[in-house]
Amino acid sequence: MGKQRQVASDAGLSKQRVVVEAVRLADREGVDGLSMRRLAGALGAGAMSLYHYVASKEELLDAMIDVVFEEIELPPEETDWQSAMRRRAVSARQVLARHPWAIGLMESRTTPGPANLRHHEAVTACLRRAGFSVLMATHANWLLDSCVYGYALQEATLPFDTADDFADMAEDAYLPQLPPDQFPYLNESAAALVAAGYDPAEEFMFGLDLVLAALEPLRASA
Amino acid sequence: MGKQRQVASDAGLSKQRVVVEAVRLADREGVDGLSMRRLAGALGAGAMSLYHYVASKEELLDAMIDVVFEEIELPPEETDWQSAMRRRAVSARQVLARHPWAIGLMESRTTPGPANLRHHEAVTACLRRAGFSVLMATHANWLLDSCVYGYALQEATLPFDTADDFADMAEDAYLPQLPPDQFPYLNESAAALVAAGYDPAEEFMFGLDLVLAALEPLRASA
DNA sequence: ATAGTACAGCGTACGACGTACAGCGTACGA
DNA sequence: TCGTACGCTGTACGTCGTACGCTGTACTAT
């Protein structure tokens, strides 16, 4: 027995490698498919070996969330505040769409990781430099994050991804469940949206732009 | 052996009773504390008895989400659209604060239950009657729901509940982790907000009112 | 060269989980 | 009186997180 070459890797383990592989596994199979044994298997290691790098599965999940935050673009400093906020919000939404499990995990983990904190600092900095007061910057922060999380959550619960999927879904599975006399407005909406080639992916930009525009006059230096 | 009086109830089981008790248990102990065995115990029954009323735990979770939707107030019909939407949004936020586990569950369950559909229909009806076009009503729906879910999620991840908790938390646990040279803006915010007796519970109303005001001019009949 | 120590990784075991399956006692129609 | 259907349950299986104690290797001090 003894140390031997791993099948899935060219080197020993590390917290970094463990967490990154965990994110990949969760992306592929969902959080429910992520077990310490399966993760260890993917790393070519024994289950208990992981506990040399992570104190518990809880800590692993915390670290995974922080990896997700690391992927989100920080607001660029060289543009106006609206463009900067739009960029980082769009990036955040993309990242959350790539890792849908993350949104469901956040509810239960209450201690922000370093990447999360760095992110928060950068966003606050951008807002303050744009002329928002401390209190107003806090408001804006909450509101913008609510948009990101809210839309991400709603998109995650949608049973379809693209405009075409939506059309198929609506006609095949959704509408037949909705008797028109009980749900006249939902029927009206579904019919009209399918006819217009509606794409739910555009919803986010509508909300984000509306919020950004509404925040603009609340800057002290506006 | 045979049928005998249950300890926790005065009658036999039913899907209703099972699901309601599951919600109670989740409220008390969190989703992770909700197991079929413990739920059965709380109902004074054997674990496998539950499967006569729910096909699987997945179905139980779906049903629990729908119970949550049932608790949310529908928009009243006799007022202007803004008041109606504000009422139901506030109600939704309260309900989600009462059942924090619900927000984390939604990500994974993609089929809306009857209460969810009824709710959606009522909100859409309110918006359409207020003069929003089909497309604009859809936009408004997404945006308002994003607010509700987004704020609910952020509040759930906060490690404190009240303004006093916030002050204690910030000074004892949060700030010491944030070196002022790395996180100048977060330090500034925390200090200023603690001094002002900041209460995060007020955030939601700020975002909601801002969004409602920004939607107002988008009505066709405005 | 030798002994000692630290460390990365693993095998086994335990209690709890979701649930398939094969019962059980009771109530009721014939 | 008997059958049969129904509400309910105990047992068992595979999987989960993880406590514990053991390996073999690498490095340090002598």
TrEMBL record, chains A, B:
<keyword id="KW-0805">Transcription regulation</keyword>
<keyword id="KW-0678">Repressor</keyword>
<dbReference type="InterPro" id="IPR001647">
    <property type="entry name" value="HTH_TetR"/>
</dbReference>
<dbReference type="GO" id="GO:0003700">
    <property type="term" value="F:DNA-binding transcription factor activity"/>
</dbReference>
<dbReference type="GO" id="GO:0045892">
    <property type="term" value="P:negative regulation of DNA-templated transcription"/>
</dbReference>
<keyword id="KW-0238">DNA-binding</keyword>
<dbReference type="GO" id="GO:0000976">
    <property type="term" value="F:transcription cis-regulatory region binding"/>
</dbReference>
<dbReference type="InterPro" id="IPR009057">
    <property type="entry name" value="Homeodomain-like_sf"/>
</dbReference>
<dbReference type="InterPro" id="IPR003012">
    <property type="entry name" value="Tet_transcr_reg_TetR"/>
</dbReference>
<dbReference type="Pfam" id="PF02909">
    <property type="entry name" value="TetR_C_1"/>
</dbReference>
<dbReference type="GO" id="GO:0046677">
    <property type="term" value="P:response to antibiotic"/>
</dbReference>
<dbReference type="InterPro" id="IPR036271">
    <property type="entry name" value="Tet_transcr_reg_TetR-rel_C_sf"/>
</dbReference>
<protein>
    <submittedName>
        <fullName>Transcriptional regulator, TetR family</fullName>
    </submittedName>
</protein>
<dbReference type="Pfam" id="PF00440">
    <property type="entry name" value="TetR_N"/>
</dbReference>
<feature type="DNA-binding region" description="H-T-H motif">
    <location>
        <begin position="35"/>
        <end position="54"/>
    </location>
</feature>
<dbReference type="InterPro" id="IPR050109">
    <property type="entry name" value="HTH-type_TetR-like_transc_reg"/>
</dbReference>
<dbReference type="InterPro" id="IPR004111">
    <property type="entry name" value="Repressor_TetR_C"/>
</dbReference>
<keyword id="KW-0804">Transcription</keyword>
<feature type="domain" description="HTH tetR-type">
    <location>
        <begin position="12"/>
        <end position="72"/>
    </location>
</feature>
